[in-house]
Amino acid sequence: MVAACGGPPAASVDPGPRPDLAVANPASTEFLPTVTVWDVGEKQWVQLANFLPADKPVLVWFWAPH
Questions:
Q1: Closest-CA residue to 41 (of 56, 26, 51)
Q2: pLDDT tens per residue, range 8-60
Q3: Which residue in 54, 9, 64, 61 sits closest to 40, CA to CA?
């Protein structure tokens, strides 16, 4: 039997400093906050409020381990 030891895995991407991205449609801020977030799928910074309006439903999932 082998036991795994060690700390958490290192991040595979260093996103660098958080940029201040503009909001494309000010009306979208009624539903989503204006905050720049890291898109782990696309590996780039995005403006959260720019996900609306959308052709498909948008699911926003936040996770905080503590």
A1: 51
A2: 666 567 888 999 999 999 999 999 999 999 888 899 999 999 999 999 998 88
A3: 61
Distance CA 38, CA 16 (A): 10
Q: Residues of 14-51 as b/e, b for ≥16 C-beta within 10 angstroms? A: eeeeeeebeeeeeebeeebeeeebeeeeeeebebbbbb
Q: How far apart are CA 14 and CA 42, in angstroms?
A: 13
pTM of the model: 0.67
Size (the chain), residues:
66
Q: Which of 25, 45, 27, 43 is nearest to 35 (CA)?
A: 45
